[in-house]
Amino acid sequence: MALPASGQIEFRDFNLDRGVAGSAQITLAQAADVYGVSYDGSGGDPASMDEFYGLNTIFTMYDGCGRSNTNGGVCSDAANNNRTFYSDCSNIGVGCVVYTDKYPNALTGYDYVYIGGLAWIINSSNGVISELAPEQC
Fold first, then answer.
1. What is the helix, strand, coil percentage profile of the chain, to 5?
2. pTM for the whole structure
3. Are strands 129-132 and 118-122 parallel, antiparallel or unpaired?
4. Hey, is 17 helix, strand or coil?
5. How far does Cα 69 stand from its chain's mean position?
6. 89-105, pLDDT tens digit by residue?
7. Contact (Cβ atoms closer than 8 angstroms) between residue 20 and residue 8
8. How sure is the predictor about 41, in pLDDT bands with cuts at 50, 70 and 90?
9. Which residues does 56 contact at the CB level (< 8 Å), separation at least 6?
10. What is the pLDDT of residue 12?
11. Considering Cα of 79, then 81, then 84, then 89, what sign does the dihedral take?
12. Residues 32, 36, 42, 46: what is their CA dihedral angle, to the nearest 10 degrees?
């Protein structure tokens, strides 16, 4: 997916480590400068969204994951579906946000997640890990 030649994109809380506090709207040229991506707005060779977000440096990918609304269900989901989730934490734990992709869309609608080899209780409305689950896989 190519970036538009002009416009704005919204950066979310996952960009705090990049010096963008909270949510902010900045121009594509400003964002390109933050990420070190060549972008002149002339319609030449714009960066891809993956390059723009610097995904490989911001997110850690976790394979073999699962999601469920029950503690026991998260283990079988991980075993049967082998989902891939992402986080801006390289060491998954309490306070980390779990994303379903790298753009970033938080994992919502579930109470438990299996990620990083452990089952966790997760806030179903914002994808933040709140504690280690009482039952492990």
1. 25, 30, 45
2. 0.62
3. antiparallel
4. helix
5. 20
6. 889 999 999 999 877 78
7. no
8. low
9. none
10. 46
11. negative
12. -90
